[in-house]
């Protein structure tokens, strides 16, 4: 048989046919071959060959048939074993189903793909309206949605069914969890979910209704016991109180609540739902605009009542009540009702009385303002009168002194000479009194002009020593003025006047001994002391001596003063901000103490005739100062001062204009004085930064009244010093004509 014949023969025999079918096909093929061989008469040799081939084919067919029969036997045996295994599996499944059906709990098994494999009849047995939908093949998500649709499934307070579905799917992500779920009317099951080793899920549902009921009964007994203890306490309260449990059921209340709500006793009972109580009293109260009883109901139903609920309501009779509600630790809440009608009435009366009082206060204030204005006008008139009178009196006094001085000594007798000396002393006393009156007038009127600056105490002390040494020697007193290098921040003229009055007062009231003037360092301050060995001052008189026209020695003559010296000292010290104190005891002398702030050592200011000279640098070139100041008055004052010193000033009101001026003229200033706050434009520091980018490290000062640490830090970072307002002329002079740099 040729290969083609073999291929054709194989095509005729289908391996998938049963052995019987294959044998039938082979027999048909053999018969056809035999008939074909018999019909051939032309070539007997070829026929014999064909016959041999047919015989061989038949033998092969018989071998294949035997092989197929053996394979069929094996297949039948396998099918028999598979059928047996299937019967055993089905029996095992039925046994497993029967086993889980006997389990007292609800049971369900989901595979690793969250598809329901099997469940027993107790699974969701308390939800009869969905029980028939619990069939194998259900996905877990669909199962949860079906369970949520059951009308028997109880929802926790404040949770919707969609919320419950989200909660249940979220808990499903955990490998193990347990929750208690209400199913049916007052029926409860404990649901536990566990993962299997293969990734599936087993759900067990155990009914715990009896346990929860017993727990409720026990809790109810405890609540009854607590209510029995609590009720007498509540009855003593003047407010109506009621307590509700977590399920919004009434636990306990007092009689005051029933009285306020005008409810018969049979309309309140233990276990009453909050909604039933609210429905009975809803129409009794008038809520304020925009509010209603629904807000209280919404608050009660919140899952978490973090804040309290409080509102005032009224009745048609005019009574006002305050409703207050607060959550309890166990999830319940307490509601109180308080009659605040009397309180609100009292507050209204107080408000009306307050309005009347405010009107009276306003009226009295106006009267006081008028009186104050009159007093201020009178004081101003007195000050003007004192100033005018003192000025008018000083003129003839000066003339009288000149006339007396013009009298020759030779023409006078000794008694006349003594009389002339007394007249001159009297005129000096009057002149001193008038000067003191002028000082008091200026200090009281607030017109005293002060110029705080750095004042060296050494020169002031030397002048005072020279001035008062003769007067002290005349009384036999020793005046000691200790030299000092201290520099303080004060007004030079008023500081000298204060010390003059203190030394003069010490000499006047010291009969023997000594007077000491010294400056000592006390912490961060300089303390000037004027100490005498006089008669001393009793404690009850120590405040009195600082008043006008007050003297301890009532027998002293007017020539010794009018008691204005210490009054001037007190007012001048207060004006300058120098704390003044006194230490004294009768018979032990007195010490007046004046505390002064240290000041920078000033440079020698130029003489008036040297203005042009100091306005030039070491090479004789005129100094050019760029002044950036947006306050017109301060700018004019600065320009006037600098030009008086011989400085050429370029003044502009803003940083932008300063940059434009530099850009247009190409001028490089020798110094820059820049205000920090320049209005809506760039700040002084911003302007200086740009100027230094264009001009290099030009010497500059930032002028400001801002004393904040933030500004100081920014200035330090830019390498520029800050000059505080009010501007010290000494510091300004040092910057312009001293080292020449503020960096």
TrEMBL record:
<dbReference type="InterPro" id="IPR003594">
    <property type="entry name" value="HATPase_dom"/>
</dbReference>
<keyword id="KW-0418">Kinase</keyword>
<feature type="domain" description="Response regulatory">
    <location>
        <begin position="624"/>
        <end position="740"/>
    </location>
</feature>
<dbReference type="GO" id="GO:0005886">
    <property type="term" value="C:plasma membrane"/>
</dbReference>
<dbReference type="InterPro" id="IPR003661">
    <property type="entry name" value="HisK_dim/P_dom"/>
</dbReference>
<dbReference type="InterPro" id="IPR001789">
    <property type="entry name" value="Sig_transdc_resp-reg_receiver"/>
</dbReference>
<feature type="modified residue" description="4-aspartylphosphate">
    <location>
        <position position="675"/>
    </location>
</feature>
<dbReference type="InterPro" id="IPR036097">
    <property type="entry name" value="HisK_dim/P_sf"/>
</dbReference>
<dbReference type="InterPro" id="IPR004358">
    <property type="entry name" value="Sig_transdc_His_kin-like_C"/>
</dbReference>
<keyword id="KW-0597">Phosphoprotein</keyword>
<feature type="domain" description="Histidine kinase">
    <location>
        <begin position="388"/>
        <end position="600"/>
    </location>
</feature>
<dbReference type="Pfam" id="PF02518">
    <property type="entry name" value="HATPase_c"/>
</dbReference>
<dbReference type="GO" id="GO:0000155">
    <property type="term" value="F:phosphorelay sensor kinase activity"/>
</dbReference>
<dbReference type="InterPro" id="IPR036890">
    <property type="entry name" value="HATPase_C_sf"/>
</dbReference>
<keyword id="KW-0175">Coiled coil</keyword>
<feature type="coiled-coil region">
    <location>
        <begin position="340"/>
        <end position="367"/>
    </location>
</feature>
<protein>
    <recommendedName>
        <fullName>histidine kinase</fullName>
        <ecNumber>2.7.13.3</ecNumber>
    </recommendedName>
</protein>
<dbReference type="Pfam" id="PF12860">
    <property type="entry name" value="PAS_7"/>
</dbReference>
<dbReference type="GO" id="GO:0009927">
    <property type="term" value="F:histidine phosphotransfer kinase activity"/>
</dbReference>
<dbReference type="InterPro" id="IPR011006">
    <property type="entry name" value="CheY-like_superfamily"/>
</dbReference>
<keyword id="KW-0808">Transferase</keyword>
<dbReference type="Pfam" id="PF00512">
    <property type="entry name" value="HisKA"/>
</dbReference>
<dbReference type="InterPro" id="IPR005467">
    <property type="entry name" value="His_kinase_dom"/>
</dbReference>
<dbReference type="Pfam" id="PF00072">
    <property type="entry name" value="Response_reg"/>
</dbReference>
């Amino acid at each position: 048989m040729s290969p083609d014949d073999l291929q054709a023969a194989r095509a005729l025999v289908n391996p998938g046919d049963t052995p019987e079918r294959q044998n039938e096909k082979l027999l048909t093929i053999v018969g056809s071959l035999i008939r074909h061989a018999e019909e051939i008469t032309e070539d007997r040799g070829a026929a014999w060959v064909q016959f041999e081939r047919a015989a061989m084919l038949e033998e092969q067919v018989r071998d294949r048939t035997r092989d197929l029969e053996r394979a069929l036997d094996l297949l039948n045996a396998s099918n028999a074993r598979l059928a047996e295994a299937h019967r055993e599996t089905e029996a095992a499944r039925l046994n497993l189903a029967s086993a889980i059906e006997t389990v007292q709990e609800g049971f369900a098994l989901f595979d690793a793909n969250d598809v329901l494999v099997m469940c027993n009849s107790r699974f969701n047995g308390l939800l009869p309206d969905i029980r028939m939908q619990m069939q194998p093949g259900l996905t877990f998500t669909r199962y949860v949605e079906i369970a949520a649709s059951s009308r028997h499934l109880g929802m926790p307070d404040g949770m919707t069914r969609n919320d419950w579905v989200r909660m249940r799917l979220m808990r499903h992500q955990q490998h193990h969890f347990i929750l208690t779920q209400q199913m049916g009317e007052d029926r409860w099951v404990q649901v536990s979910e566990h993962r299997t080793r293969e990734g599936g899920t087993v759900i067990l549902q155990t009914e715990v209704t009896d346990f929860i009921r017993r727990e409720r009964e026990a809790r109810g007994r405890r609540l009854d016991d607590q209510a029995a203890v609590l009720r007498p306490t509540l009855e003593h309260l003047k407010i109506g109180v009621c307590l509700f449990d977590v399920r919004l059921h009434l636990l306990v209340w007092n009689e005051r609540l029933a009285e306020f709500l005008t409810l018969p006793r049979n309309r309140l009972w233990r276990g009453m739902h909050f909604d039933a109580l609210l429905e009975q009293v809803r129409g009794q109260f008038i809520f304020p605009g925009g509010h209603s009883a629904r807000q209280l109901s919404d608050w009660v139903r919140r899952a978490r009542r973090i804040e309290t609920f409080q509102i005032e309501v009224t009745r048609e009779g005019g009574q006002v009540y305050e409703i207050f509600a607060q959550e309890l630790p166990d999830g319940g809440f307490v509601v109180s009702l308080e009659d605040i009608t009397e309180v609100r009435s009292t507050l209204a009366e107080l408000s009306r009385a307050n309005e009347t009082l405010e009107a009276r206060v306003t009226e009295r204030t106006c009267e006081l303002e008028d009186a104050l204005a009159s007093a201020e006008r009178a004081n101003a008139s007195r000050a003007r009168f004192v100033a005018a009178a003192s000025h008018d009196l000083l003129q003839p006094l000066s003339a009288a002194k000149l006339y007396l001085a013009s009298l020759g000594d030779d023409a006078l007798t000794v008694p006349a000479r003594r009389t002339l000396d007394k007249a001159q002393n009297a005129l000096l006393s009057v002149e001193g009194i008038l000067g003191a009156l002028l000082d008091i007038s200026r200090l009281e009127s607030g017109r005293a002009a002060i110029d705080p600056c750095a004042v060296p105490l050494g020169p002031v002390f030397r002048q005072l020593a020279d001035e008062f040494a003769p007067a002290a020697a005349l009384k036999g007193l020793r005046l000691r003025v200790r030299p000092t290098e201290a520099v303080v921040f004060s007004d030079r003229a008023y500081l000298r006047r204060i010390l003059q009055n203190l030394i003069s007062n010490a000499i006047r009231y010291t009969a023997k001994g000594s007077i000491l003037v010294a400056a000592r360092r006390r912490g961060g301050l300089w303390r000037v002391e004027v100490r005498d060995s006089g008669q001393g001052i009793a404690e009850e008189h120590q405040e009195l001596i600082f008043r006008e026209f007050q003297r301890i020695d009532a027998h002293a003559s007017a020539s010794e003063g009018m008691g204005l010296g210490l009054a001037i000292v007190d007012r001048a010290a207060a004006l300058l901000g120098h704390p003044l104190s006194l230490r004294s005891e009768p018979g032990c002398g007195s010490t007046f103490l004046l505390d002064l702030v240290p000041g920078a050592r000033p440079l020698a200011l130029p003489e008036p005739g040297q203005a042009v000279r100091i306005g030039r640098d070491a090479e004789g070139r005129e100094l050019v100062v760029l002044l950036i100041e947006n306050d017109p008055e301060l700018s004019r004052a600065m320009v006037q001062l600098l030009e008086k010193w011989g400085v050429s000033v370029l003044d502009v009101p803003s940083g932008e204009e300063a940059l434009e001026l530099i850009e247009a003229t190409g001028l490089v200033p020798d110094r820059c004085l820049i205000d920090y706050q320049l209005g809506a434009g760039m700040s002084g520091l911003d302007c200086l930064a740009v100027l230094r980018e264009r001009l290099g490290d030009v010497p500059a000062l930032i002028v400001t009244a801002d004393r904040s640490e933030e500004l100081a830090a920014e200035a330090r970072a830019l390498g520029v010093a800050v000059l505080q307002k009010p501007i010290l002329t000494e510091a300004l002079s040092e910057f312009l004509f001293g080292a020449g740099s503020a960096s």
